[in-house]
Amino acid sequence: MNGMMGHNMADSSGEAARLIFTPEVEAETAPVWERLRARMPAVEWPIHAPLIAAINRLKRSKNAVILGHNYMTPEIFHGVADFVGDSLALAREAARTDAKIIVQAGVRFMAETSKVLSPDKTVLIPDLQAGCSLASSITAADVRLIRSRYPGLPVVTYVNTTADVKAETDICCTSGNAVQVVEHIARQWGVDRVVLLPDEFLARNVARQTSIQIIAWAGRCEVHERFTGRQIDELRVMYPHAQVLAHPECPPDVLAASDFAGSTAAMTDYVTRLKPRQVVLITECAMADNVASESPETEFLRPCNLCPHMKRITLTNIYDALRTDRYPVEVDANVAVRARRAVQQMIDLPPPTAPARYDLVKARYHVNVELI
Ligand code: SF4
């Protein structure tokens, strides 16, 4: 296996290196460059443009679409993705598309979700190692044990989990709809306690937004757990006029110190609609780069953290994925049926009229959660 992968990698570098920056490629990719030029050194463009042109041609000839998460680098996000958004938007798109092939420009659990929703389509993940600290924090066996410990309580799972884990749960949620899902399932089951897995901080933040009691698991996103409330206080001193927007996978004291909290889609909406003069996006670094091209009047300040898993996806491995149909993601049929039920339950909920935001007054009050 290693030998084979080594051969493929050598082959792929060779193929990508053969693509050159011709006047035709320059003309074909000019609209993309227009969007990126403010955020990318001109010297990088002749490297990206031939790959972008080749990927877009391959997509057309193979009836493929690329689903690009908000944390993809700008050349992927603006250059080759057919649909961009957060996990929820991409899950909806995967269920809807007529394309034969889906290339998931994101991490593995997202590709599994697409496969679960589109079992007849080929779903490709450009790098098999694109994992997630949250998804690997919990197994299907853990969920079965939790169920036996909390009989009669519904189990809600964040979409950042494997298909095996989703298959053991009642309904999925994303950071954008977690409060809505928790309240919906509690009503449906006639209970006032809900198990919300596996992100501890998301669970703690959701607990502050609802009267439903939350039972949580100690999973963490390695990108968002590193932000601290103290960092936000320091930022306030340095940039007193900056708006601070935080993702709900951050620790509760980060949300409590912010001006806005919501999913990546909600953050994008906030910046493009309200056009703040200075903004700090407390999330993965690519978010600022991608929103910046739509918001030239806003200055994006650091800090941000990189997700090493998301960053495994590159134009080169997307090109190789499309060219050689690799790496197809498979999900056991029985697991897929059960996982689909949990994801579909979430998709079938009425879509929010506006991107969900967390109430920051409520976010400042401590609420106990039971940590498993
Ligand atoms: S940003 Fe966090 S939740 Fe998203 S893939 Fe990376 S580790 Fe997982």
Walk me through what this model shows.
By secondary structure, the protein is α/β, with parallel strands linked by helices. The protein has a domain at 2-131 and 309-324: NadA-like (Rossmann fold, 3-Layer(aba) Sandwich). 44% of the residues lie in helices and 13% in strands. The protein contains 17 helices and 13 strands. Strands 6-5-7-8-13 form a five-stranded parallel β-sheet. A four-stranded parallel β-sheet has the order 2-1-3-4, sandwiched between helices. Strand 7 (193-197), helix 11 and strand 8 form a beta-alpha-beta unit. Helix 4 (45-62) runs parallel beside helix 16. The model is unreliable at 1-11 (pLDDT under 50). The structure holds iron/sulfur cluster (SF4). The site of iron/sulfur cluster has 12 residues, from loops.
Keyphrases for this structure?
alpha/beta, disordered N terminus, 44% helix, single chain, 13% strand, 372 residues, Rossmann fold, 4-stranded parallel β-sheet, binds iron/sulfur cluster, globular, 13 strands, 5-stranded parallel β-sheet
Give a brief rundown of this model:
This protein has about 375 residues and is an alpha/beta fold. It contains 17 helices and 13 strands. The protein has a domain at about 1-130 and about 310-325: NadA-like (Rossmann fold, 3-Layer(aba) Sandwich), CATH 3.40.50.
Strand neighbour order, sheet with most strands: 6-5-7-8-13
Report the bound ligands by name, code or SMILES: iron/sulfur cluster
Largest sheet: 5 strands, parallel
Estimate the strand proportion: 5-15%
The overall average pLDDT, rounded, is: 92
Total beta strand runs: 13
Proportion in helices: 40-55%
| Structural class category | alpha/beta
Secondary-structure element pattern, one letter each:
HHHHEHEHEHEHEHEHEHEHEHEHEHEHHE
- Radius of gyration, Cα only, in angstroms? 21 Å
The CATH homologous superfamily name of the domain at 2-131 and 309-324 equals NadA-like
Q: Can you identify the CATH class of the domain at 2-131 and 309-324?
A: Alpha Beta
CATH architecture classification name of the domain at 2-131 and 309-324: 3-Layer(aba) Sandwich
CATH third-level topology of the domain at 2-131 and 309-324: Rossmann fold
C-alpha termini separation: 39 Å
Shape: globular
Q: Determine the number of helices (DSSP H or I, runs of at least 4 residues).
A: 17
